[in-house]
Amino acid sequence: MLLPLLIAVHVIGVVLWIGGVAFVTMVVFPMIMRMENSLEKVLFFQGVEHRFAKIAKTSVVIVGLTGVLLLHITGEWNIMFKASGIGPTLMTVVWVFYVLVLMFEGRLFKAIFKGEAQQDTAKVFYRLSVFHWIILGISLLAIGVGVWAGHGGSF
Ligand code: HEM
Fold first, then answer.
1. Residue 120 belongs to a domain
2. Which residue among 71, 91, 138, 141 has the greatest number of ligand 1 atoms within 8 angstroms of its CB, and so is best to mutate?
3. Residue 105 lies in a domain
4. Which of 15, 34, 67, 148 could be 153's S-S partner, Cβ–Cβ 3.0 to 4.6 Å?
5. Is 82 helix (H, G, I), strand (E, B) or coil?
């Protein structure tokens, strides 16, 4: 009873979080890149990211807590960093990466929007968009591998 419930909560957290990343990557960035005015681009982007950061932070906590509980209940600690534990291992790597990005988000934004951004916002948003495609790809890979490995698929 507890195991399926935890997986359900875990996956709902993943849907809200990675779904948001997909929306920002596939909808918000193309909109921003079509805007003419640099200031408009920066303000719109910061508005969206600021709002989404709260959803992402809450989801990261829920997914992390339920993930650790799942490892505990299933005893999958033992297969972490082994071929048979590729699902939870990849999930943990993705999770740690997002935690680091969210922790240093303020500093990252300052670094990104200072200097070069004033001269060439188009270039900065292009790079940010590529970065988002990469993290979205890695996240989807973790989901695909997690579901595959969790339902009898082997590597
Ligand atoms: C600290 C981080 C995390 C830990 C410790 C963790 C661990 C686990 C464990 C133990 C399971 C259930 C058993 C299994 O399928 O092997 C599970 C299920 C799942 N996790 Fe994670 N996870 C974490 C983060 C994530 C992240 C970041 C994602 C998505 C990018 C994710 C996606 C999923 C999915 C989709 C399932 C359901 C698999 C299924 O049963 O079909 N998890 N997780």
1. yes
2. 91
3. yes
4. 148
5. coil
In a domain, 116, yes or no: yes
Structure tokens given for 89: 């291992």
Mean pLDDT within 7-16:
98
Q: Which domain holds residue 26?
A: 2-150
pLDDT digits (tens, 9 = 90+) for 62-121: 999 999 999 999 999 999 999 989 999 999 999 999 999 989 988 887 787 776 656 688
Nearest to 91 by CA among 145, 28, 42: 145
Structural domain count of the chain: 1
> Is pLDDT at 40 greater than 70 in this prediction?
yes
Widest CA span in the chain: 57
What is the CB < 6 Å shell around ligand 1? 7, 10-11, 14, 18, 63-64, 67-68, 70-71, 74, 76, 87-88, 91-92, 94-95, 139, 142-143, 146-147, 149-151
The C-alpha atoms of residue 85 and residue 23 are separated, in whole angstroms, by 29
Pocket test for ligand 1, best of 63, 65, 66 (most atoms within 8 A of CB): 63
Q: What is the pLDDT of residue 113?
A: 73
